[in-house]
Design a protein that fits this description.
Blueprint: E1 5-12, E2 17-20, H1 45-71, H2 75-84, H3 87-100, H4 107-116, E3 124-127, H5 133-137, E4 142-146, E5 154-156, E6 169-175, H6 183-193, E7 194-205, H7 218-228, E8 230-231
Parallel strand pairs: 2-7, 3-4, 3-6, 4-5, 6-7
Antiparallel strand pairs: 1-2, 1-7, 1-8
Amino acid sequence: MANEGQTKKRKRRSGQRKTQNKPSDNQLTSSSSKPSNSTKPPNSSKPSTFLEKMKARLSGGHFRMLNEKLYTCTGNEALNYFKDDPSLFDKYHAGYQEQMSHWPELPVNIIMKWLKDRDSSLVVADFGCGDARLAKNVKNKVYSIDLVSSDPSVIACDMAKTPLDSLSVDVAVFCLSLMGTDFPSYILEAHRVLKPSGWLLIAEVKSRFDTNTGGADPNKFAKAICELGFTTSAKDKIAKSKEIEWPELKPCLYKRR
């Protein structure tokens, strides 16, 4: 995992996929003549600075509220939530971009490099693409998928039910997008659309896999993915369980101020 996110890469076995284990102020000038009295004009920059800080705090609070909502509802509920008010999606991603600006390394950049080091003919499905940054920075054909289409190239849908054909992509990407309570259905959908020997790339917030703070056991998470039909290396085939026991991923929750 990166400082804020970890990229996992795993392979799908033959007949299985591979996986490698969501910003000039105008200047005020004064006349050279002195005012008729000694009273100094008010510093007009203070209200502006105060308002900017208040707007930033309100924006940050709105982002945290939306972020928590996405972590604690199903993908279909999130889809309907943004359908009711598409502007919330833009507000969420504005807050998301502001948060990322403080990270020392962005997981999406690691995934970009991984793709650029490989054949550009690999077809990619980017689940939870946001502003489609991945598609805009690699030569590969990328199906950008998210709850709302903020760009003509983005497919708006529930990530558990994409319009992609089965066995149609070489790489499936989840970059900080396993957010719904039904996240296993997203991975099942990725498994459906991946070709045999395709790759599943997952980057997630490190704290979600920190067992000391209530996060999921990363080994159990990896085991669940392997039972779905992925592998981290050339090993004997793992018998597929009738029902995979997925660990619950810790949502990103915020303390009320």
